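This week, look over our next protein:
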Amino acid sequence: MIHIFTITSHNTLNQVTPIYSIVQILPLMLSIFAAIIAVVIPLYLYKQLNQKISSYSEYGEKIKKLEENLSNLTSKFDEVSTKIKDIKTDKLEEVTKLSEKISSIERKIEKVESEIDNLKKPMVPFQLEEIKETEIDSLQELQIYYPFIKYASIMSSQGFTIEIVGKGIDEPAKLLEIIKISDMFAGSKEIIIEKKEDLLYLFYLDTLEDLDIYGIVLAKKPLNTNSLGVIKNVLHKYFSKKKVVE
């Protein structure tokens, strides 16, 4: 370890003041950075949760409004039905008009009830259908078997692109820094980033000599995490087979 000293002279004695090297203060810097990450990530997740809660509240307001409309239509229906009972049989024309109004109100009631039922169905953020693993011979086939994939790439830890298909990500090599930071502080080489309409999946794939190999997948919503795991397995088997052949 290298130290740098400065010497200052005084009337009675010389004092030596040590200046600490960057190696000594690096642990402190990493601790501060880790503390910042520990604050920023929960705040980000809290913000995303609030946004989802707000969207659910909007559906609640729509349901409430539709229920009020249904109540008004039901009241009108009861009112018209009562009038029909009080009408004499010789007023056939008026009876016919009232019957048409009843039919119209009944159709509106059915429509409103249908809308309410649809809004009251549980909102599932991810697709329910499970996808199956498929063996591929090229990365282009990935989009054929799984059309919800917008982009996929296989990259080395140095940022070199081995194979790529699709569009939607600028400078994918920079995304590897996210995995490296996650591995350093959280011990995880697998990250899912949720966007407005897509899911970005970064993961460790394999090794090639002394290099780590990573996969990057950008997929359309809705998509469940099990499906992402299937895509990871498909890419792992594809890369392993290709590595043996080459």
Summary: Confidence is low (pLDDT under 50) at residues 1-17, 121-128. The chain has five helices and seven strands.
